[in-house]
UniProtKB/TrEMBL annotation:
<keyword id="KW-0677">Repeat</keyword>
<keyword id="KW-0961">Cell wall biogenesis/degradation</keyword>
<feature type="domain" description="L,D-TPase catalytic">
    <location>
        <begin position="357"/>
        <end position="482"/>
    </location>
</feature>
<dbReference type="GO" id="GO:0016740">
    <property type="term" value="F:transferase activity"/>
</dbReference>
<dbReference type="GO" id="GO:0018104">
    <property type="term" value="P:peptidoglycan-protein cross-linking"/>
</dbReference>
<dbReference type="InterPro" id="IPR018337">
    <property type="entry name" value="Cell_wall/Cho-bd_repeat"/>
</dbReference>
<feature type="region of interest" description="Disordered">
    <location>
        <begin position="496"/>
        <end position="517"/>
    </location>
</feature>
<dbReference type="GO" id="GO:0071555">
    <property type="term" value="P:cell wall organization"/>
</dbReference>
<protein>
    <submittedName>
        <fullName>L,D-transpeptidase catalytic domain protein</fullName>
    </submittedName>
</protein>
<dbReference type="Pfam" id="PF19127">
    <property type="entry name" value="Choline_bind_3"/>
</dbReference>
<feature type="compositionally biased region" description="Low complexity">
    <location>
        <begin position="35"/>
        <end position="71"/>
    </location>
</feature>
<feature type="active site" description="Nucleophile">
    <location>
        <position position="458"/>
    </location>
</feature>
<dbReference type="InterPro" id="IPR005490">
    <property type="entry name" value="LD_TPept_cat_dom"/>
</dbReference>
<feature type="signal peptide">
    <location>
        <begin position="1"/>
        <end position="26"/>
    </location>
</feature>
<keyword id="KW-0732">Signal</keyword>
<feature type="region of interest" description="Disordered">
    <location>
        <begin position="35"/>
        <end position="93"/>
    </location>
</feature>
<feature type="repeat" description="Cell wall-binding">
    <location>
        <begin position="323"/>
        <end position="342"/>
    </location>
</feature>
Length: 517
C-alpha cells in the first residue's frame, strides 16, 4: 500500500448561497436554479503541485492544491490562510484512493474552499442534444434538510453546484432526457439508504443524520451516451476528486459530512481530463471496482456481504467473495453468471420455458417480475424482469388472469394488443396505438417515456414483453400487485437504451415488426 501526504489548502473567499422554493423542479427544470452557486461569481482558483520528497523508501508527496488569489474589499490579493494535511492511501491502480488522518486548520473557511474546489473546471458539462429527439440530457439535484425543504440545487448542464455549509439530510434527483437515475446516500446515523430512482425521496427526518457519502448512476439512453461524474467537498475542507457511474464518493467511519456537490454528464466519446482517483476520506475505499483481470470485486474495511452494482450490473458478495451460479439470497433463488457473477435477468435461455409462472408487479418501481417455480419452495426464481407503466388506480392484491385478447379497443380511439385481463377492467397489455388495431399505429411517446407515463390502472409493457406474457403464461396465472419502495428487486429492471423517433409508428420489440427495425 502506498501512503502519500495530502495537502489541502484552505483559502478565504466569500460565496453566497440562498434557498429554493418548495416547487423547485417544476419552476426551474429549464433554467439555472437560483439557489445553486455559480463558479463564475467567484474568483477562479489556481492550482499548484508541491515538490515530492522520499524518505526511507516511502514516497511522500502533496496532491494538487488550490491556491487563492482572491481580492479583498480594498482590491488587494490575499494568500491562503492555512494548509491542512492528510494521508492518501493508494492500495493499487485498480482501487480508488482514499485520504485519512486529515488535520483541518482551526480557522477553516469552507466558503473559500468550496469556491476554489475546481467545480468550474467541467464548465457546463459535455452533453450535446441527442440525435434522435434533440433533447438535452441533464440531471437536476437538490440538497434537502430533515424537513424535506430545499437548501440548494443545481443542474448538470450548468456551471453551478449545490452547497450547504451545515450539510444536508436528503438528496433528491430529477432529470430530463431518456434514462433512469439511481442513487443512495450514506448518513452519519442510518448508514446506507435504499436505492432510489430520480423523483423519489428518502424522507430522513433526523437533522443530525447528515449525508456523508453518495453513490449515483444512470442507465438507459443517457447512460449509453454519457458518463455521470460527481465531485464533493467535505465539512473538514477535504476536496475529493470526481467519482463516476456509481462509485462511492464522500466519507465513511468519520464525523465529517458532504457540504458541496457537483454532478456533470460527460460524452463518452470525449476524454474526461479531471482527476478521478481520491474518492473518499476513509482508511479504505468502500465499493466495487474492476481488478487487473477485468473482474468486479468489492473493497471494504471488513469482508462485505450484500448486493452491489458495477456499471448497473447487479452482483452479490458473501464474506468478501463474489458469488456465482445458483444462489439462494434473501428468499429468492438467483442465477449469477458463472463467468462474471452478474445477475442473469433473463433465464429462459438457462431454464427453458416453464409450465407455470407467477407474475409479481411492484407499483413503486413500475417493474413486472415473471417468477418461476423452485419445486416445493414455490415461485422464488426471478425468471424475467420487464419495465412497465402503471397508474394510481392500479389495484393491489392477489389476482389471476382469466381472459386474453389479441387486440382490443380500450376507450375512444385507443387500442392495445397482447392483452391478459386479471381483474375487472385492469389488464396487462402493450403500449398505446391510435385509431385502429394496427401495429403501425403506435404512439411513440408511450415507448420512449415509459418511466414518466401513467396508465388508468392497467399494466403496460413493450409489445415484445406483452406478447411473451400473452403467449407463454397460461390462463389462471397468479398476478400479485404490491407497493414496496424499500427494494427495486428482486432484479433491477432495464431502461430504454435506444429511443425511437417521434415519427416512428411501431414498437421495435414487437415480434410482428422485427423486419422493420
Amino acid at each position: 500500500m502506498q501512503l502519500k501526504r495530502f495537502s489541502i489548502v484552505f483559502a478565504s473567499a466569500l460565496m453566497i448561497s440562498s434557498s429554493l422554493p418548495p416547487d423547485t423542479f417544476a419552476a426551474t427544470i429549464k433554467r439555472n436554479v437560483t439557489a445553486s452557486v455559480s463558479p463564475e461569481a467567484t474568483e477562479t482558483a489556481e492550482s499548484t503541485t508541491e515538490a515530492t520528497e522520499s524518505t526511507n523508501g516511502t514516497t511522500e508527496s502533496t496532491a494538487e492544491t488550490v491556491e487563492s488569489t482572491s481580492a479583498d474589499n480594498t482590491g488587494t490579493n490575499t494568500a491562503p490562510d492555512k494548509v491542512g494535511t492528510g494521508d492518501i492511501s493508494a492500495p493499487s491502480d485498480h482501487i480508488p484512493s482514499t485520504v485519512n488522518n486529515v488535520t483541518a486548520p482551526s480557522n477553516l473557511d469552507l466558503d473559500s474552499v468550496v469556491a476554489k474546489a475546481g467545480f468550474e473546471k467541467v464548465g457546463n458539462g459535455n452533453t450535446n442534444p441527442e440525435p434522435v429527439l434533440g433533447e438535452t440530457q441533464m440531471v437536476h439535484y437538490v440538497l434537502r434538510n430533515a424537513s424535506e425543504q430545499d437548501i440548494s440545487a443545481a443542474e448538470s448542464n450548468t456551471s453551478a453546484y449545490a452547497y450547504s455549509k451545515d450539510g444536508f439530510n436528503n438528496l433528491f434527483l430529477d432529470h430530463s432526457g431518456i434514462g433512469r437515475y439511481y442513487f443512495r446516500t450514506y448518513n452519519t446515523k442510518s448508514g446506507w439508504s435504499r436505492w432510489m430512482n430520480s423523483k423519489e425521496n428518502e424522507n430522513n427526518t433526523d437533522p443530525e443524520d447528515k449525508v456523508q457519502a453518495v453513490q449515483i448512476r444512470v442507465k438507459g439512453y443517457t447512460g449509453v451516451r454519457s458518463d455521470l461524474y460527481y465531485k464533493a467537498v467535505l465539512s473538514d475542507g477535504t476536496v475529493l476528486d470526481w467519482a463516476k457511474n456509481g462509485q462511492t464518493l464522500g466519507t465513511v467511519g468519520t464525523d465529517k459530512y458532504i457540504v458541496a456537490l457537483k454532478l456533470t454528464l460527460w460524452d463518452k466519446q470525449t476524454a474526461f481530463s479531471e482527476p478521478t482517483k481520491v474518492l473518499m476520506e476513509a482508511p479504505v475505499y468502500e465499493g466495487t471496482y474492476l481488478d487487473a483481470d477485468g473482474q468486479v470485486q468489492y473493497s471494504s474495511a471488513n469482508a462485505y456481504t450484500g448486493w452491489a452494482f458495477y456499471n448497473n450490473d447487479q452482483y452479490y458478495f458473501k464474506d468478501g467473495a463474489k458469488q456465482k451460479g445458483w444462489q439462494y439470497i434473501d428468499g429468492y433463488k438467483y442465477y449469477l453468471d458463472e463467468n462474471t457473477g452478474a445477475v442473469v435477468k433473463d433465464l429462459e435461455p438457462i431454464m427453458g420455458l416453464q409450465s407455470s409462472y407467477q407474475i409479481r408487479f411492484n407499483k413503486a418501481s413500475m417493474t413486472m417480475h415473471i417468477m418461476a417455480k423452485d419445486g416445493n419452495n414455490g415461485y422464488i426464481i426471478p425468471y424475467k424482469t420487464f419495465m412497465s407503466t402503471n397508474g394510481p388506480a392500479t389495484p393491489e392484491g392477489s389476482f389471476k388472469t382469466y381472459v386474453k385478447y389479441r387486440w382490443k379497443i380500450m376507450h375512444d380511439n385507443i387500442y392495445c394488443q397482447f392483452l391478459s385481463r386479471f381483474k375487472d377492467g385492469y389488464i396487462i397489455h402493450s403500449l398505446i396505438y391510435y385509431d385502429k388495431g394496427d401495429p403501425n399505429k403506435l404512439d411513440s411517446a408511450t415507448y420512449n417515456y415509459m418511466d414518466d407515463a401513467r396508465s388508468d390502472g392497467c399494466l403496460r409493457l413493450r409489445a415484445g414483453d406483452a406478447a411473451w406474457v400473452y403467449y407463454n403464461t397460461p390462463m389462471g396465472t397468479p398476478v400479485i400487485v404490491y407497493t414496496d419502495y424499500s427494494t427495486k428487486g428482486p432484479v433491477e429492471k432495464d431502461a430504454i437504451e435506444q429511443p425511437i423517433p417521434a415519427s416512428q409508428t411501431f414498437d421495435p420489440t414487437d415480434p410482428l415488426m422485427q423486419g422493420n427495425n
